[in-house]
Amino acid sequence: MTNYTNKKSVFRNFDRLDFYLITLCILFTLLIFLLFTNSSMPPFEDAAMLMRYSQNFVYGHGIVWNIGEHPVDGATDFLFMICVAITAKTGLSIENSVLLIDMSSHILTGIIIYIFIRKFLFAGRWMAFTSLLFFILGTGLIYTAVFFGTPFFALFSAITWFCANEAVIDPKYSNSLIFSVSGLILGLIRPEGVFLAIFMLIAILFKIGFKKSKKIVLSFLIIFGIIGSIYFIWRWGYFGYPLPNPYYKKGGFTLHLRGLTQSIGTFVIFSYPFIPAFILGGRSKENLQQTIFSLIPVIGFIL
C-alpha cells in the first residue's frame, strides 16, 4: 500500500493544480456556510457553557462559572477555551471568536487531509480532492454553526496523525519531538486527546517496532512526563481535584454502553465511504499491516 522508503518521490506531482483544487474547495465551503447557515441560531447548550467560561476568563475572573466563585472545571475543552479568550482580546465578540477559530480549523484540517493523501498514500488528485470535499462539506460545518470546539480538536488530531506518519518515515529526534508536542497539545484541548495520542503511539510501535521507535517513545514520555505533569499538578491545585469534571459526573470508570453504541454508530455514518478500503486492506501482508496501523487510533478512540 504505502512505500515509506520512497520519500524523495512524495511530492513529485504536487503542483499548481493541487493548489487550485484546494482553493476551489475552500471557497465553495465558505459559500455554502454563508448561504445555508442561520446566523441567528443560538449556540448549543454545551457550547454556550464553554463560551461563558471563555468570557469570564477574558475579563480576568479565571475559569469560573459565576464571577467570584471557586474555579470549576466545566469547560473541559481547556485549550480551546483559552484560544477563544485570547482571540476575543483582539476586540471580537466571543461568538465571532469561536466562529473564526472553528472555520479556520475546519479548513486547515481539510488541507492537511489532502496533503496527507497525496504525500503518504501516493494517491492521485481525484482521490485527494473527493476526500477533501467529503470532509470539508461534512459535519464540521454543523459543529461550527452551533459553536462547538470540535473542529479545533479535529485539526490537532489531524496534525498529530500527520506528525506520527512523518515519525514513522524518519524516527529522528526532531520528528519524534514534534509528534510528542502535538500529542500534548491534543491532550490539552480535550482530556480524551491524551488517549488518542497514546493510541497513535501504539500504532507507531506496531508499524516500525520498539527498536526503531525508541526516540519517539522517549520523546513522548519526556514531553508528557514533564510538561504534562506540570499541567496536571497545576490544574489539581487550581480546581481542587485531579481529573476532568465529566469523570466524576459520569461515574468514574463505569462503562456506558449507550455512549459506546453512539460512538460506533457515528464512526460508521461518517466513515462509510472508506470502509471498503479498510476491508480491501487485508489482501496482502503489507496492506494488512498498513490498515491495522491506520485503524489502531480509530478503534481505540471509539472504544
From TrEMBL:
Q: Report TM segments.
A: 17-36, 98-117, 129-157, 177-206, 218-239, 259-280
Superkingdom of this protein's organism: Archaea
Record keyword Transferase present: no
User: Which keywords fit this entry according to its UniProt record?
Assistant: Membrane, Transmembrane, Transmembrane helix
| UniProt name for this protein | Glycosyltransferase RgtA/B/C/D-like domain-containing protein
* Annotated source species: Methanosarcina barkeri str. Wiesmoor
